[in-house]
Amino acid sequence: MSTIFSKIIAREIPSEIVYQDDTVTAFKDIHPSAPVHILIVPNKEIPTVNDVTSDDEAGMGHLFVVAKQIAREQGIAESGYRLIVNCRDDGGQEVYHLHMHLLGGRKLGPMLAR
Ligand code: 5GP
Question: What fold, for 4-104?
C-alpha cells in the first residue's frame, strides 16, 4: 500500500526535499520536533522494519550514509543528533513507509519518557 511518502518521493506533492538519489529521498518533516527534523526514506516501498529483507541491506546502510551527510550539511554533526526508526503501533509509527528521523539542533534530552 502506497503512502504519502511515495507521492513526495515522486514529487507529485510538494515537500522540502533536501537530498535525493536513486535509492533514498530526504525531506523536512512537516511537523518538526526539533530545529532540524528530516525524514530519510528509501525510495522502495518498505512498510516497516519487519518487512526488511537481506536484499535491503545495502539500502538500509545507505540511509546512515545519507543521514551523516545531511547532518554535516545542516551543521549538527559536531553538536550531535538522534536517528529514530519507529516500527508499528507501540513504536509510534504513523506512516507505513519505513523512514529514519534525523533530529538535532538542540539538546534532545533522554531517549524515552520514563
Ligand atoms: P512516524 O511516526 O511514522 O515515525 O513519523 C511520520 C512523520 O511523518 C511524522 O513526524 C510526521 O510529521 C511526518 N509527516 C506525515 N505526513 C507528512 C507529509 O505529508 N509531509 C512531510 N514532510 N512530513 C509528513
Answer: HIT family, subunit A (3.30.428)
**Residues known to be catalytic:** 99
Which residues contact residue 96 at a Cβ distance below 8 angstroms, ignoring those fewer than 6 apart? Answer: 1, 3, 47, 48
Centre of ligand 1 from the C-alpha of residue 45, in Å? 15
- Ligand 1, pocket residues at CB < 6 Å: 4, 15, 27-31, 39, 86, 92-95
In this prediction, residue 101 carries a pLDDT of 98
Q: Among 88, 75, 84, 79, which residue's Cα sits nearest to residue 103?
A: 84
pLDDT, tens digit, for every residue of 70-88?
A: 999 999 999 999 999 999 9
